[in-house]
Amino acid sequence: MKYHRRFQWLAIPVVSIYDHVKYRYRVIGRENIPEGGCVVVANHTQWADPVLVATALGHQNDFAAMAKKELFEIKGLGPLITALGAFPVDRGRADLTAIKTALRAVRDGRKLLIFPEGTTKHKEGDEVKEGAARIALKTGAPILPLYISENKKFRSKVYVVIGEPFVPEPTRTKEGYRRLSDEIMQRIYSLKETI
């Protein structure tokens, strides 16, 4: 199965209902979502995070998402998340196919979701992956930071805070990529203070 914009458009309102039934769910800062392609970056603590981000972006925004390749090996799940805009990435190596897919998505005007922490087992302050920084710099697209509440339980208050987009200073050095990756996470976690 391939990505289907119409399926994504129809599915997001249904997912939104699920989010509002399961949690006391609130989105702050939707007005910060830019027009056209951008790199959406968020913290990642639970499996529900991609669903919460999709709802926050809304069905009117065409988006794509990098997801670990293991998810696509689960029977029935792979075709579903592919149709919704996800594509696989092998986290154990430099996955050129995933990188090309990501670059194309942003250049085509889609919102590309990446979790720089790479895993839900990541803790604030741990080193993050540089993929989001590299893709933003390569495309010249703005970076849109999001913070997602970390303790998500049934009927608990869950927030997605959308920060202001920013365009990073150009760099081609390893140190520059690392600095930008650190800045991305600082911007994400600073949004926690707005809740």
Written overview of the protein:
There is one protein chain. The protein has 195 residues and is an alpha/beta fold. The protein has a single domain (5-194), classed as 3-Layer(aba) Sandwich (Glycerol-3-phosphate (1)-acyltransferase). The chain has six helices and seven strands, in the order αββαβαβαβαββα. It has helices at residues 5-22, 49-57, 77-83, 96-107, 131-139, 174-190, and strands spanning 24-28, 38-42, 63-68, 86-89, 111-114, 143-148, 157-162. Strands 1-7-6-2-5-3-4 form a seven-stranded mixed β-sheet, with helices on both faces. The mean pLDDT is 91.
List keywords for this structure.
single chain; 195 residues; alpha/beta; Glycerol-3-phosphate (1)-acyltransferase; seven-stranded mixed beta sheet; 37% helix; globular
Q: Please give the count of helices.
A: 6
CATH superfamily: Glycerol-3-phosphate (1)-acyltransferase
Indicate the mean pLDDT: 91
- The 3D shape can be described as globular
What's the alpha carbon Rg, rounded to whole Å?
A: 16 Å
Strand order of the largest sheet: 1-7-6-2-5-3-4
The CATH topology label is: Glycerol-3-phosphate (1)-acyltransferase
Structural class: alpha/beta
- Strand fraction equals 15-25%
Percent of residues in helical segments? 25-40%
User: Quick one: biggest sheet?
Assistant: 7 strands, mixed
CATH architecture: 3-Layer(aba) Sandwich
CATH class: Alpha Beta
Along the chain, the helix and strand elements come as HEEHEHEHEHEEH
How many β strands by DSSP?
7
Beginning-to-end CA distance, first to last residue = 39 Å
Structural domains: how many = 1
Task: Give start-end ranges of low-pLDDT stretches.
Answer: none
